Predict the structure.
Amino acid sequence: MIRIYIPRDSGAVAVDADEVAAAFAAVVADRPGIEIVRNGSRGLYWLEPLVEIETAVGRLAFGPVTPGDADSILAAALAGAPHPLALGPVGDILWLKRQARLTFARCGVTDPLSIEDYRRHGGLAGLERALSLGPEAIVEEVVQSGLRGRGGAGFPTGIKWRTVAQTVAPQKYIVCNADEGDSGTFADRMIMEGDPFVLIEGMVIAGIAVGATKGYVYIRSEYPHAIAAMNAAVSVARRERLLGPRVAGSSHAFELEIRAGAGAYVCGEETSLLESLEGNRGLVRAKPPLPAHVGLFGRPTVINNVLSLASAPIVLAQGAAHYRDFGMGRSRGTMPIQLAGNIRHGGLFETAFGVTLGELVDDIGGGTASGRPVRAVQVGGPLGAYFPRALFDTPFDYEAFAARDGLIGHGGVVVFDDTVDMAKQARFAMEFCAIESCGKCTPCRIGSTRGVETMDRIIRGEDRGGNLAVLEDLCHTMKFGSLCALGGFTPYPVMSALTHFPEDFGASPRLEAAE
Amino acid sequence: MKVAREKAWDPEVAESRIRENLHLDGALLPILHALQEEFGYIDEAAEPLIAEALNRSRAEIHGVVTFYHDFRRAPAGRHVIKLCRAEACQAAGGDALAERACAHLGIALGDTAADGRVTLEPIYCLGLCAVAPSAMVDGRVVGRLDARRLDALLAEVER
């Protein structure tokens, strides 16, 4: 059997993977023994659509493929002949070889909706071990692995689980935060589209660990492909008895529901997400009480990011020590880093913590797509700081970024070339906060609007010194007075732009020239 | 291009779409999504129906409908183009494309063309940041946008 793998990932579909698949389907229509598989993406997006042809010698990669290439690629692959788009055996591609793929081990490899494929590639080994360990030992294993929340806050996942496990209640919930709203991030989307069972397995393990029987995956509406993939995977999982009254034949029950968000960035904040799930405006709740004590519908709730939950199966399957052995300092394991924006080699790069920002941008990312010099890099989404080249020696690590007034957030790295106007970016950070503020607390609601106005005055060159002082004062108030990270972290992009690129906050003629 | 043609507002259809979601815990967002899928927007007349079904105040329902960017208060144009305006797409030249689209259609982001053919909206991230700039056209995702690809999309929706 010869298999042709063409990604169904929306990042590939956005660059015509469906048209490529249709072209291959037409080419193989009258040729028995050739099957087309729609896999997830390997994450090498500059090569998408990346087509792999699997023959007796292994999987040969080609990319980026257009529909017109189908005929010649198949002929070359079958004859072992050269082809201008040939990338060689997929496993030999350096960009992939350099990674440590734990959470993303199967993404791009398997058929996302085939449970047989999932099992064949190590799936469900984590759940099996979890069932043999029992709840307390599962929690201990996750604590020992050092896994921290991959959504951005970096809170130890095992401690969260332990808190919920120790809280007595008639009903507990597992909620997966799949409201991946940060620009420059797409790892959650890739997992949901490319290996949805790993998320389901992770949530089932969490449910067993803390005694929760119901889970929700809250997916942003901007991800229709991920919503469809998760719904399809849940149906398969029910049929396979991975979900239901007796999970994998055990005495544990677990049910899962997929819910769609409705275009509110703030619903990525955990308490706002819970409000939204309950059918309310996504207003942030004051903490305490913690969701672990009083969460969804007032019940103890584990609320974790997609990547945190999707890392649980590998932690359980390989053991805590295996996972903990990757990384540096207090950042253990691997981080799926997302390289995006104006970058030559953009995509998903999962690696142990400790790689430097410079390595990521210049070496792995290959610099800008435009070929111009890299000027600024925003790490951690719209609430993350802008870093100049001078800080490229910063290692990818929660504490190292915090020490330089930045954050790694959900692992997004957005590259800008030297045409960027940092005053404009600072203004956008305030504008975005104003658009997305839930409105509950004053520093965020009013501060962001005043921030936009103040940036406009600075950009126009009005009383620069006075307005910069107002801007700093606003940022201080927002940082320390806001209820959640939206208002609290908006000062990071603003102040980092001002600190590292003061020349862009000068008088208006220079700014106009830079446009 | 395939365009979903939504049906005109019909309270009986609305009632049935509400009912089929009532078994869910926290049913309001699923109900609103179902109504928008059916009619293309949330008619104001739906609010008292939902309030009655969920035993909540009409003000609460109105508050939820208006909180979320997704829910429309009036039907959109026949085609909807959502241009990503977030940072990764800005870095890849998205600003110029947004200006080009606005100039071509003669409308601002967030508006619908006078002939009702196209609605142009900003969207903040489609998760296509490594194939930026990106857009969504009638639910179809498009990446690596440049002036040529954008012009082709604009021509398509104006046909």
In short: DSSP finds 22 helices and 16 strands in chain A. Residues 507-515 of chain A have pLDDT under 50 and may be disordered.
